[in-house]
Write a structure and sequence with these properties.
The chain is of the alpha+beta class and 417 residues long. The protein has 3 domains: 10-124, Acyl-CoA dehydrogenase/oxidase, N-terminal domain (Butyryl-Coa Dehydrogenase, subunit A, domain 1, Orthogonal Bundle); 128-234, Butyryl-CoA Dehydrogenase, subunit A, domain 2; 263-388, Butyryl-CoA Dehydrogenase, subunit A, domain 3 (Up-down Bundle), CATH 1.20.140.10. The chain is 41% helix and 12% strand. It is built from 12 helices and 8 strands. The chain has helices at residues 3-6, 10-24, 40-53, 72-81, 92-106, 109-121, 236-251, 264-277, 284-312, 321-343, 359-365, 377-388, and strands at residues 126-129, 145-149, 152-160, 170-176, 187-193, 199-204, 213-224, 228-229. The strands form 2 sheets. It has a 4-stranded mixed β-sheet, with helices on one face. A hairpin with a 2-residue loop joins strand 2 and strand 3. Helix 5 packs antiparallel against helix 7 and helix 8 (264-277) runs antiparallel to helix 9 (284-312). The termini are far apart. It binds flavin-adenine dinucleotide (FAD). Flavin-adenine dinucleotide is lined by residues 128-131, 135-137, 159, 161-163, 369, 372-373, 375-376, 378-379, 382, 394.
Amino acid sequence: MSDSISNEDVQAFRLRARVWLAENMPLEPEQPRSHADAARWPRAKELQRLLFDAGFAGLCFPKEYGGQGLSRAHQQAFDEEVTPYEMPLTLNVPTFGIIAATLLEFGDEVQKKRYLPPILRGDEVWVQLLSEPTGGSDLASVMTRATPDADGFVLSGSKVWSSGAYAADYGICVARTNWDLPKHDGISVLIVKMDEPGVTVERIRGVAGDDEFCQEFFDDVRIPAENVIGQVDAGWTVVRGLLAHERNSMGGASPYVSGGGLVPQSRQDEIVALAQRLDLTEDIRVRQLVAEAHILSLVQDQTSRRVTGAMTRGELGPPAGAILRLMGARVSVRRADIALEIAGAGAGVWPADDPDGGQVGDRFIARQGSELGGGSTEIQRNIISERVLEMPREPAADRGIPFSQVRRNAMPSQQGS
Ligand SMILES: Cc1cc2nc3c(=O)[nH]c(=O)nc-3n(C[C@H](O)[C@H](O)[C@H](O)COP(=O)(O)OP(=O)(O)OC[C@H]3O[C@@H](n4cnc5c(N)ncnc54)[C@H](O)[C@@H]3O)c2cc1C
């Protein structure tokens, strides 16, 4: 791409994108692809390749790693233009918004050149390997171990709730590399090739019938030394950065997430459309619910702009992403409740492909997921109180003592050396 295009102003870029999209991008199908439909992965890769080849992928990633080197304002204009089109939204989280952003921030030059271009082309999908069967909120308590040896590390343990791991080529894994240091200090962040010998991925059936969640087992998986992101034993810095990218992605503040999936207006239309389809637009109670959903979307949109603006100007630090993450989760749950209140309790048993809005019931049943995925709402409240409002930290009995000496509810054979 020539410099004249990379320097083009936002309005010129918007018009160029509008013309290209109209000529090349398919319209969003009337019945959007379900989140549980495995065929969405090859479709997303195909659409991403189309965008990449036309210079509309990775807008805010630097050019040397396959991106376009454009600004957040360009990305926002693009998001507004793509609303009617089918977009590879599946690749946004975690691959673009969390993992590619983390590689960009903490990866070395070799890692950035090796991994970012295939990600932006849609060739390689990634998964987050963070949560463990013993718990996810206290991420610094990871029990999965990466034992150093001559060529790198030997990984053993288990991760769980990993969204889409069955479709992933690579994973970003948080593991303990040193048990003699306090819990935040002996951690490293590793790149794991998901088809490596010793990696087993099992799918978990979710409450709404989908099987997107996975559990992974690592049995002496070899990890080369060059697969460490950041410094060995000092991976907590990387984890904190990754979690900030996660909050931004989930809260609608990440410049690396592309497409209209988080634009409040598009979601608003779903509630209106539901009321229209069910011929309930004259019902006073339904009108109140539609208005409530609309107000929530507007307030979320304004909060997002205000917090994102303050973060961009440096007036608020990265922990402020928790405000958006918290708000996103609360609004998502309330909107799922509103949709069910409009549709009636019977929607809970509508089949997923019911043209009158079969996804209403599934979304209602699975709605608490948005209060857990990407860090729970309670944890976001903790972050806001401790790191945005600077209130005292919650007590922690394990602070400052070697992790191998932390008392925990585990079999002796599972504990550190
Ligand atoms: C839709 C979805 C997608 C996900 N995708 C992934 C993924 O791709 N990769 C991955 O690794 N994980 C993923 N997860 C897991 C997610 O990160 C964890 O569910 C989350 O971090 C909470 O961990 P937990 O479930 O182990 O609950 P726990 O940590 O056991 O917490 C249980 C409850 O206690 C509360 N709690 C815990 N500690 C505190 C505290 N200090 N103060 C107040 N309350 C507290 C929590 O808020 C929660 O309500 C996903 C989860 C969901 C629902």
